[in-house]
Specification:
Keywords: Transcription, Transcription regulation. Pfam families: HTH_DeoR. This is DeoR family transcriptional regulator. Residues 19-57 form the HTH deoR-type domain. With 172 residues, the chain is of the alpha+beta class. It folds into 2 domains: 2-77, Winged helix-like DNA-binding domain superfamily/Winged helix DNA-binding domain (Arc Repressor Mutant, subunit A, Orthogonal Bundle); 87-167, Beta Polymerase, domain 2 (2-Layer Sandwich). It is 43% helix and 26% strand. The protein has helices spanning 2-5, 9-19, 28-35, 39-51, 75-86, 88-98, 131-145; strands at residues 25-27, 55-60, 63-68, 101-108, 119-127, 148-154, 163-167. Helix 6 packs antiparallel against helix 7 (131-145).
Length: 172
């Protein structure tokens, strides 16, 4: 659906890369390699998004690094649209609905790094998690968001490496 609004596949990939997780940053050649596209196509989109103020850039050694501009007035809106497009809102809602005493929900893997490989790795931590519900939930979520979902369950809290979607203690 978002593809009909954002017709440039490169622009959509860039928005996913930088807005799914505000900590993501990259440079031109790294993006070209990751996306498998020419540097010219990516440079054009990076320039457009930077001129619009949606991305910011800074010099890091001899490379220009890009990342989302969290001070842009539309930052939160774009982030929310990208997360909805990826199905992260429905994923979180379904997990919190009947999984039990969830402490944390953390995205790991490619999607946390902003690469939409159609696979979402999710770590759910907490006590007394509903293991039976997870297999049912996996099928339901995969149909809803048209992506493969791989769940990992853990009792107790972890130091998350990835994108925290929910943390009971932090109020996120």
């Amino acid at each position: 659906m978002l593809e009909s609004l954002i017709t440039s596949k490169t622009r959509l990939k860039l928005l996913i890369k930088f807005f799914v997780n505000s900590q993501n940053h990259s440079h031109l050649r790294g993006l070209a390699e990751e996306f498998g596209e020419s540097t010219n196509a990516i440079r054009k989109e990076l320039n457009n998004l930077t001129q619009a103020g949606i991305l910011i850039s800074h010099l890091d050694k001899n490379k220009i690094e890009y990342q989302a501009n969290q001070n842009h007035p539309f930052y939160t809106n774009i982030r929310d649209i990208i997360r909805k497009y990826l199905g992260l809102d429905m994923l979180l809602e379904q997990i919190l609905d009947r999984m039990g005493e969830v402490e944390q929900v953390v995205l790991t893997g490619d999607i946390a790094r902003g690469s939409d490989t159609k696979v979402i790795d999710v770590l759910v931590t907490g006590e007394n998690l509903n293991d039976e519900y997870i297999s049912h939930l996996t099928k339901k979520i995969e149909e809803l968001i048209d992506r493969k979902v791989v769940f990992s369950l853990s009792s107790g809290r972890v130091s998350p490496v990835g994108l925290v979607l929910f943390d009971r203690q932090a109020g996120v």
